[in-house]
Amino acid sequence: MKPLVFHFPLPPNANRSGWGHWKAYKAKQAWYAAADLLLAAKKLPRPPKVPYDKCWLSAVLTMSRAMDDENAAFRANKFARDFLKRTGYIVDDSRKHCRIIGMPDQVITRTVPPGLCITLTPVKDWDLTA
Prior knowledge:
Low-confidence stretches: none
Number of strands: 5
Number of helices: 2
Oligomer: single chain
């Protein structure tokens, strides 16, 4: 099956200390609204007719400075996986249905806007060649 590639705005760093629950919630809702606009404007691949039951995900963060692996993994995966589930690309974002390939790559640059690139590869089984 053909991989789908998504170019999202950079998700907020909701793990920031000092952020209360409300501020993190508002930042997450703003990110979802931006992703929804990209989908409505047909800047993202169309959802499949039937959500994928199993898939691999890989991520690349483009930012102006590096993050530690744990925060980069959260930032690259949580909001995007929830969006993919909510909009019908995947059945669920649990490990039973969706697995992440390694730590997200981090491209550090100030010459392009920050963002998140997710590659979703649907599979029949937990073998990348399937």
